[in-house]
Amino acid sequence: MRTTFDFSPLSRSSVGFDHLFELLDSANRMAPADNWPPYDIMRVGESQYRIAMSVAGFSPDELTITHEQRLLVVSGEKVGEDNAEYLYRGIAARNFERRFQLADHVMVTGANLTNGLLTIDLVRELPEQMKPRRIDIQQAGALPAGEVNKQIKGDKHAA
To answer: How far apart are CA 159 and CA 150, in angstroms?
Structure first.
């Protein structure tokens, strides 16, 4: 059973979320993906993330990590032929490509391959102009800073 979602009611009351709606719509239309190689996505800090992917049998020169705008592509391609005669083959050695959609301003900070586990570190860094800032509120009719109240001088005194 396949369910489709209509995001048009959300579009009527929101501005600037069209990228999110397109992302949800494309995920809904996507065919069931191959679940190999297995991976985990972890949050390791307030704005730090880590992807851990099991790539047993691949060397660093057989793996490629590409970071495009809002897309991280991890691929593995076995080079050379394996002419061994296997009685049982439980370790998959096939080529793969895994795609991860990234949020805005998420950058790859590093990758490491240890004991068949590829870890990719990511961080979300907001630009200065997007960080919250405090806005000073001025009172209507207030004098600009630096000006002093001027008093009327004369010989009349209050009674």
So the answer is: 21
